[in-house]
Hints:
The complex is a heterodimer of chains A (334) and B (656). With 334 residues, chain A is mainly α. In chain A, 36% of the residues lie in helices and 3% in strands. Chain A is globular, with a radius of gyration of 25 Å. The relative contact order of chain A is 0.11. Chain B has 656 residues and is mainly α. Among the domains of chain B are: 1-159, no CATH class; 484-656, Up-down Bundle (Cytochrome C Oxidase, Chain A). Chain B has 23 helices and no strands. At the A-B interface, α1 and α6 of A face α9, α11, α12, α13 and α14 of B.
Amino acid sequence: MLNLSKNHALLTFTAFIVFFGLSTVIAIFPALDMQNSVQPLSKAVDLSPEERAGLNIYIAEGCVACHTQQVRNIEMDKVWGDRPSLASDYYYSKKRMDVWRQSPSLLGSERTGPDLTNVGKRQPSQDWHLIHLYNPRIVVEQSVMAPYPWLFELKSPSEVEPTDVKVNVPKKFLKNASLVVVAKDEALNLVKYIQSLKQVDPSFAIPDFIPSSGTDAFAETTPDGQALDGKSLYIQNCAACHQPSGEGLAGAFPTLKNSPIVIDEDYDFMVRIIIQGYDARDEYGVMPPLGDQLNDSEIAAIVNYERNSWGNEAARVSTEDVKRIRDFVNALNQ
Amino acid sequence: MFSGKGMFHFIKISCTTPKVLIFALFFLHPFTSVIAQESNKNILEQPGIIGTIVLGAMILIIATLIAIIRASTYLKKIKETNSLKSPEGLRQQIVNLEADKIAHILEERTRSEKMPQKNIKFPKFLANVKEKAAYALIHIDESSINDYLQQRLTNLGYELSGQELGSNAEVLDKRGLVVSQSQDVSSPIYDDKQRSDYKIVADPALAKIVISYIAASTFWLLFGTFIGLYVGIKFVAPDIESLSFLSFGRLRPVHTNAVFWGWSSLAMIGLGYFVVTRTSNAKIYNVRWAWIALALMNLSVILGTIFLMAGINNGGGEYREYIWPVISLFAIGLFITFLNFYKTVANRKTEDIYISNWYILAGCIWTLVLVTIGYLPFYQEGLGETIIQGYYMHQGVGMWFMTFTLGLVYYFLPSSLNKPIYSYSLGILAFWTQMLFYTLIGTHHFVFSPIPWWLQTVAIVFSIGMFIPVLAGTTNFLLTMRGSFSQIGRSYVLPFMLVGVLFYFIGSTQGSFQAFRFTNFVWHFTDFNVAHSHITMYGIISFFLWGCIYALVPKLIGREPNQLLVGVHFWLSFLGLIVYTFSLMIGGTERGLSWIEGAPFIESVSLMFPYWLWRAIGGTFMFFGHIFFWYNLHLVYRGWRTSTITPKEKRDVELV
C-alpha cells in the first residue's frame, strides 16, 4: 500500500516523476517535433549578417514586450498580414543567438504596438523608421513607444562624413538645433531587420483565416470601392509619414494639404506616385511603391479622401480610373 | 459565543447586496455601454465574458462587505459610547471596573464640589470605553448608581475559601493556557485588533533565517514595484527620460523578475523554513545551507537586474529573461533549499507529513524540473522555443508561486484562526489535480498561433479542469474560516488571508475563462492579460504572503506592529489593486473590440490613455502600501535587534 503521507521519499519521488512525465509529453516532445519537422519555405531566405545584428538589438532592447510577430488565423489579424503565420516562417529568425542566449521569443504576448510580421512590406521606408526610432512622436503623435536616441549620434555639421546616414529630426525635438542626427550602425541594422520582416508567399495552399464567429457583429466591410473607408485606409497606410493632419513633416515627408500634385485636376501623377513610389526631391524621404499592397478600389478611396480633406477640394477618382493608370504603368514597365 | 454574532453580521450584510450589485453595475457602465453600442449585444452572451463580469462584481461586493464589517464595528463602538450616557448602560459597565477604581468613583461621587451633569460630555483625553464609563459614573446625576457601585464593590470583595471544589490546590494556569489578557481598548478611530503579545519560542538560528529572508524579500518588493510603477508611468509619459538602461523594454523584465525571484520567492522560502521545521517538529537540517541559498538567490537577482539593464537578456521570453549563468545561481540556491527542507521533513518527529510540506517539497522539486527544461537548448529552435515558453511561464506561476504559497496557507490560515484545516483530503485532491491540470495548459497563452492545434485544444480543455483544484482549495479555506468571520474585524492578519482566498478563486477561474477561444479573441494581446497577472501574482500570492508574514513575524520577535499602519497597508494595496485591474480590464476589452472592428491601430492606443493613467494611479497606491509594509516590519524588527534572550527562554529553546 502506497502511503504517501507517511513516506517522504516516495511522496517527493512521485511528485517528481509524474510532473516530469507530464512535462515530457506536453512540452519536450512537441517542442522537439516542432524543431525537427519544420522546414523553411522555399522562397524564404536567411537573415543577412546586418539583419541578424539588428535582430540582436531588437531582443536586447526588449521590443518583444510590446510587438508581436504572429498573424493569428483569425479574421481580425488580417490587417497584419496576407495570411496566417506558419511555423516555417520562424525557421531562420528563431535560432539560438549565442552560447549565452537562447532562441528569441519573437511571437510575443502583448500587442501594445503593432504586429511586425509584415512591417517590411507595410512600412518599407528607412527614413521613416530612423526618425521613428529617434523619437516615435515625431511621426506618430499619439504613440507611447519608447524613444531610442542612444542608437544615434549627434554631430556638428562639419564632422559629418559623406558615408553617414543623416536623420531629418525636426528642430523642436533637438536640444541643440545646430547638431545633426546621424544613425549609428545599431540603428541601421535594426532598421534593416525591421525591413526584412515580410511574409513570404508559401507557394502551396494553406488554411485561410477563420471568419470571426459568423455573427453580424464582426462582419467585414465589402470589398466594393464605395463602401471602403478612405480615412481609415489613409490612417493605416499613409498617415505614418504624411500624418493624420495631412501636413507631413517638414524636412522629412511632404504635406498633402494644398499640395499642387494632390489637388491638381489631373490626378494621373498622384495615382502613379502611389503605385510606383517617388524619389525626386532631396529634401524629403523616399516614397515607397504601394501598388502591390493596395488594390484599385483602395487606392481610389485613399485618393478621394486626400483630395477632399484638410481643406483640399478636387474631383473624385473612380476605381476604373486607377485601373487605367495601373495598366498604363504596367505597360511601361514591360 | 462569537459565531452567533458573526452570523448576525452576515445576515445584515446580505440584505445590502442588491445595493452593492447596483453599485457594481454602475461601475461597469462604460464597459457595457460600449459593447452594446459598437458591436451588437451578443458579446454579453459569451460565457467567458459573463463569467468574468460576475467575477469582477464579486471583487467589488467582497470589498464592500469588508468595508461594511469594519464600519459596523466602528458604529457599534459609537453606540456603546452613547449607551454610557444612560444609567442602564452604565450599570452594565460597572462589571468591567476593578475594585480600586470603583472605590475611587464612589469617593469622587461623595465629594461635594463635583457637580453632577445632566447630559454628559466626554473630554477628549478619554481614550477607551472603560475610562469613559468611569468618567460617566462619576458625573451622572443618578443616585441609584451609588447603590450599584457599592453592591459591586462588596461582590468584588468576595473571596473563595479555596475549599469549594474540595481541594486545597492553588488555582494556577500551569500550562500557560491563558494567552493574554487585556482590557485596554485604546484607538479612537478603528476597532482594536486582537493582540498576540506572546512570543513563539523558536530556535534563534531559525528565527534569524526567517527574518533575514523576509527582510531581503521586502527590499525586492520595494525595488521591484518601484520599477513597476515607473514603467507604468512610461505609458502616459513616454518621454520622461531617454536613458538606454531605463528604457521600457529593458526595465519591464527588471520589474517582473525582481518581484518574482526577489520578493515572492524569498518571502516564500523564508516562511517555508518556519512551516517545515514547525510542522515536522524538527530542527532546521543545515543552517549554513540556508544562508548560502539566500546569498545565491540575492546575487542572482542583483546580477540579473544589472544584465537586463545593460541589454543582455536570454531572448525576451517572459520570466526567462535572466541568462542561464544568472538563473543557475538561483537554481542552485533552490536546490540547496529543497535538500534542506527534504532532510528536515525526513527528520520529522510526527508520523504523517503535514499537507503544507507536500506543497512546499513539490513546489521546489517541480520548479527545479521546470527551470531545467526551460533553459536546456536541445529542443528550442524555431517554434520549439514557443512551446517551451508557454509551458515555462505558466508553470512558473502555477508550480512554484501558487503551489508553495498554498502550502504556506495550509499552515498559516488554520493557525491564525486557531483551529484545524477543514479537510485534509480536499487539500490532497487539490494537490494532485493542481499538478495534473496546471501542467497541461501552458499552451493556452498561444491560442490561434502556429503552434499545433491539438496542443492548443488540450490546453483549453484542461484549463476548465483547473476548476477542480481551485474549487477544492477555495472551499477548504472558506470552510476553515466558517464561523470565524467575526474574527476578520478583530484581526490584522485575516483580512489579507480573506483577500488572498477571494482572489485565488477569482483569478484562477478568470484565467480559465480567458482560455476560451472567444475570450481569447477579445482579450489576447491586450492589457487584460496584465490585469490578470496582477490579480494572481499580487492579489493571490502577495496578499497571502503578507498575511503569513504579519501572522508570524510579530510572534517570532515578540513585538506587535502598529495596527493602524497595517490597516493602511491593507487598504492602499487592496484599493490600488482594484483600480489597477479594473481599469486595465475595461481598457483591454475596449481595445480588443476596437481591433475586431478593424479600426486603425493607433486609435486603440489613444483610447487606452485614461486607463493607463488609472493604472498608474492604482500602481501608486500599491507602491505606497508597500512603503507602509516596510515601515511596519521595520518597527517590529527594531524590537528584535534590541531584545535579549532571557535564561528561561534559552532553556525552552534547547527543549525544542
